TrEMBL record:
Similarity comment: family membership: Belongs to the translin family.
Localization of this protein: Cytoplasm, Perinuclear region; Golgi apparatus; Nucleus
PANTHER family according to UniProt: TRANSLIN AND TRANSLIN ASSOCIATED PROTEIN X (PTHR10741)
Subunit annotation: Ring-shaped heterooctamer of six TSN and two TSNAX subunits. Interacts with GOLGA3, TSNAXIP1, SUN1 and AKAP9. Interacts with the homodimeric form of C1D following gamma-radiation. Interacts with TSN and C1D in a mutually exclusive manner.
One GO cellular component, as annotated: perinuclear region of cytoplasm
GO molecular function: metal ion binding; sequence-specific DNA binding
Domain of life of the native organism: Eukaryota
Function: Acts in combination with TSN as an endonuclease involved in the activation of the RNA-induced silencing complex (RISC). Possible role in spermatogenesis.
Lineage start: Eukaryota, Metazoa, Chordata, Craniata, Vertebrata
Protein name: Translin-associated protein X
Residue spans of biased composition, Basic and acidic residues class: 14-26
Keywords: Cytoplasm, Developmental protein, Differentiation, DNA-binding, Golgi apparatus, Isopeptide bond, Magnesium, Metal-binding, Nucleus, Spermatogenesis, Ubl conjugation
Coiled coil location: none
Amino acid sequence: MSSKEGGFRKRKHDNFPHNQRREGKDVNSSSPVMLAFKSFQQELDARHDKYERLVKLSRDITVESKRTIFLLHRITSAPDAEEILTDSEIKLDGVRQKILQVAQELSGEDMHQFHRAITTGLQEYVEAVSFQHFIKTRSLISMDEINKQLIFTTEEYGKENKTPSSDAQDKQFGTWRLKITPVDYLLGVADLTGELMRMCINSVGNGDIDTPFEVSQFLRQVYDGFSFIGNTGPYEVSKKLYTLKQSLAKVENACYALKVRGSEIPKHMLADVFSVKTEMIDQEEGIS
């Protein structure tokens, strides 16, 4: 039966005896091609291992930064704010120790190839540092100020912090640095607005009528800055803009309640009134 009649086409290698098909010499493991592929394998394995180490470090940075933020939220009800600020600085120093390990892992590497592994931790660190800076100065910390805090020397942190995989582990003295990217900075500041909104709620509950107005003015400036970026910036930044707008609306609602009805509502009931108004806003916007 021919192939046109639906039969199977005879393949070329079927003409050879079975014991002679695809028989060849063993692959020479010392050939230049095999040596090149082994080199590529080792390089890829080392890169994947480094990526996993960076993911773990980023997770540790995220956890410690969140703990710092939770600690800073206690400042609205704590009698001694300086003690909390001191404790938060100690926690942030611990976070910078982790960032130092990241900087050592990235020594001699292109940071953008590993950026996805560390971006979550860096954003959370920016949020924690900017939150602490706002509590101290009622202003926004700049990206340059954050990067200045991420310059490390071996004299300050010692040689024990170096990881075995670091390419510069043989250096006895040197400087390590990690630069926050503009996208990480913007996303961290956008997340900061949610923490400031919570801080405003806690302040109202404690009878503090000054902090909500300070936070409201600050959030308006931040919102104006993000509005200038608009859709021209990264996609993640444009997504954060909606949440930022919600936080600003809630803080402005608190300021309205304090300004218009603050004199007629007891301080211990302001938080309840504000919470009810916040729930109404969320229901109107379809959040809950």
